Amino acid sequence: MPHVLLDQVIDTDYGQFDLIWGEGEGFAGDWDPFFAGQVNGLVGGAADDGVYISLARRSGGSQVRAVLLDGEPAGDPIWEDVVEISTTVPENVPVRWQTWAVEESGRLDLPPATYRLRVSARGRDAGNEGEFAEGVVDFYLLELWPSPSAPDAIIRTASENAARWHREVGGRR
To answer: Which residue ranges make up each domain of the chain?
Structure first.
């Protein structure tokens, strides 16, 4: 049974959504600390103090659901773009999420462990083109489960938006 960590519409700017532990500040415009050694360009997991997730919608609301699982989930073809990374949440630090400039933030009940994080998205092209659209047009599912560390992986890319980010950010690492 999944433990829901977050399930809400996140109003973001610049499409920035960070998971942060300890005193980390999140993404500050420098790709290298988050994407060093990675092939994907959507989810930066190379930094020690958190994970950067690029939402397609530059500003406006995107639906984000994060769940903690006991083991690896089955894939679901409803998701157009799927990326996996590994990350480690250290002992004795608070875990939180935040958007650009901490416009929105909150705590996450995520225990210390090494996790595999699968970020699945649908509607990235609509989110990229629909900055001023009424309502939510892009959706994200973050699934975390305890797992030994492994290289990041691009599982599926169906949107033009994700393909561009993989080429421009992930592909140059």
So the answer is: 3-170
Judge whether 57 and 129 are in contact, CB under 8 Å. Answer: no
- Please give the chain's pLDDT, 173 residues, in tens: 789 999 999 988 888 999 999 888 888 889 999 999 999 999 999 999 999 999 998 888 899 999 999 999 998 999 999 999 999 999 999 999 998 876 778 999 999 999 999 999 999 998 887 666 778 999 999 999 999 999 999 999 999 999 999 999 987 65
Does the domain at 3-170 match CATH 2.60.34.30? Answer given as: yes
- The C-alpha atoms of residue 31 and residue 22 are separated, in whole angstroms, by 20
Return d(Cα 173, Cα 171) in angstroms, integer: 6
Prediction pTM value? 0.94
CB 152 within 8 A of CB 83: yes
DSSP string covering 34-71: HHTT-S-SSEE--STTEEEEE-S-SEEEEEEEEEE-SS
